[in-house]
Amino acid sequence: MTANDSPSENHPTDQPSDREFAVDVEDVLEDETTSSQGLFDDLLSGEPIFENKEVLRPSYTPDELPHRSEQINKMATILVAALRGETPSNILIYGKTGTGKTASAKFVSQELEGTSRKYDVPCEVEYINCEVTDTQYRVLAQLANKFIEQNEAHIERRLEDLADLREAVEEGSTAPEATPFTDLGELDRRVEELEAEGEEMEPVPMTGWPTDRVYQEFFDAVDYRERVVVIMLDEIDKLVEKSGDDTLYNLSRMNSELDNSRVSIIGISNDLKFTDFLDPRVKSSLGEEEIVFPPYDANQLRDILQHRADIAFESAALTDDVIPLCAAFAAQEHGDARRALDLLRTAGELAERSQAERVDESHVRQAQDKIELDRVVEVVRTLPTQSKLVLFSIILLEKNGVQNVNTGEVFNIYKRLCEEIDADVLTQRRVTDLISELDMLGIVNAIVVSKGRYGRTKEISLSVPTEETEAVLLADSRLGDIEEIQPFVQARFDN
Ligand code: ADP
Ligand code: MG
After folding, report:
1. Ligand 1 geometric centre to CA of 102 (Å)
2. DSSP states of 395-412 as a string?
3. Ligand lying closest to the C-alpha of residue 96
4. DSSP bridge pairs for 268
5. Closest-lying ligand 1 atom to the alpha carbon of residue 59
6. Residue 187 gets which letter from DSSP?
7. Which of 242, 249, 376, 487 is the most exposed place for a label (fewest CB within 10 A)?
8. Are the CB atoms for 57 and 345 separated by under 8 Å?
9. What is the distance between the alpha carbons of residues 176 and 191, in angstroms, rounded to a whole number?
10. Residue 481 CA neighbour count, 13 Å, CB half
11. Ligand 1 pocket by C-beta < 6 Å: which residues?
12. Site to substitute for ligand 1 among 65, 129, 343, most atoms within 8 A of C-beta
């Protein structure tokens, strides 16, 4: 961090911008005592494209969120109750990925905490990402520990205040009657009490305790003093999918048992139908208020990108068609702002790498291909083995020039592959399901064709680049063992 850097909201001061970096290195290169062979000279000679690339990363929280004021205002209208010491309704936020749910919720919680400090009303927001923290134990333990930490800090502050007070009374600058205590003895007893309470608080280990005990610890930590706490559970659908709805059940009925504090829950879900899997009581409690985040259209994405680009890029680093094209591509991708920002950043990086002076349309198209390929690689890499075998069968058929691959052909090759690597052989019906799943993931394209009185079959083709996909599959240690592939393709002609 450079100490003389004036902190500005849009330039995180802990990250030197690319430009400052470039200037520093140039100084060094000009220094006669350095003997470089010019490895970096070429790379530095181009005009810098980025002024502050961090602004395009997902971790950056923008201080303005265009086209989300309706959702943000609705959240604020509900949560303002917390500042009046009342319990806000629980909120359920829905929307596809990249529609600004996390960014908006974090923005609102920062505002809420800021205002609560300003007016000195006890209100806290705790954020949990349930994709990372995905079991009831871990959610409760993490919350318990956050509240324990806060309570300890609170006790610390109280003890300091009491020490100051004691000193003032002893010096005679404060009259004993002006304190909440009858005498110093009572003050000392309060100090001892607080110290004992502080010592009792121990952090919950991340595994090992019975869940009841973790819950109790969490409950006590929340109820330690009067306040409203807002618990924000992001990616809540992942938690329910992985661990069921017990956590939500427990959290949503806490208020009737708390003496001092009140809890309100904000659940954020990418899956619009996830409440179908909830216990009806949880569903009605959690969904007291619902806020929908619709996908952005291309015009809205343009605004969002323009806003960020102004800070992220050197002026005139983008040709006029770059932002509209990024917006158009991302609008097709269900209006995903994350995708739009990724495209813009990647296009900039590609331009930088090719030492272009400006980012233009071609860089955006390359970026689109690169991101799409990265996505495919990731999806294929994480497929279950059975799906990989099915996909590999399709690839083998296509590579051997088989047109309009059908389910039966895939199944024959698949069976041989399973035998070769000692995997269980699924039924043809299950394989058909796996093909449908691959279709939904966008890896293959399967259309149903009628064969007249012979019934119906599927015609399957790959929707992803063959070579790259095959390479990803063969990187799997089980599939990598398949050495002689050709004989399997012959199997197509069997039966
Ligand atoms: P979600 O949680 O819905 O998947 P995020 O809130 O993480 O989406 O948003 C994805 C990315 O797009 C983040 O980098 C976020 O800062 C940005 N973003 C989303 N909506 C807006 C907006 N209205 N204005 C500016 N940036 C936005
Ligand atoms: Mg999110």
Report:
1. 7
2. HHHHHTT--SEEHHHHHH
3. 1
4. 93
5. 14
6. H
7. 487
8. yes
9. 16
10. 10
11. 58, 62, 65-68, 95, 97-103, 304, 337-338, 341
12. 65
Q: How far is the CA of 78 from the centre of ligand 1 (A)?
A: 21
pLDDT (tens digit per residue) in 62-120: 888 999 999 999 999 999 999 998 999 999 999 999 999 999 999 999 999 999 999 99
Residue 150's contacts (CB-CB under 8 Å, 6 or more residues apart) are 124
Q: Note the pLDDT of residue 3.
A: 42
Task: Summarize pLDDT for 167-186 with one digit per residue, the tens.
Answer: 999 998 888 888 888 888 99
pLDDT band, very low/low/confident/very high, at 492 (cuts 50, 70, 90): low
CB 386 within 8 A of CB 423: yes
Nearest CA to ligand 1 atom 24: 65
The DSSP H or E segment spanning 123 is strand 123-129
Q: Which amino acid is at 86?
A: E
Give the other-Cβ count within 10 Å of 461's Cβ: 14
What are the tens digits of pLDDT across the range 250-296? 999 999 999 999 999 999 999 888 888 899 999 999 989 999 999 99
Handedness of CA 480, 481, 485, 488 (dihedral sign): negative
Hey, whose CA ends up nearest to atom 6 of ligand 1?
Answer: 100
Closest by alpha carbon to 258, among 226, 236, 231? 226
* CB-count exposure of residue 128 (10 Å: 0-12, 13-18, 19+): buried
Of 304, 307, 333, the one to substitute when testing ligand 1's pocket (max ligand atoms within 8 A of C-beta) is 304
The pair phi, psi for residue 130, each rounded to 5°, is -75, -5
- pLDDT value, residue 483: 64
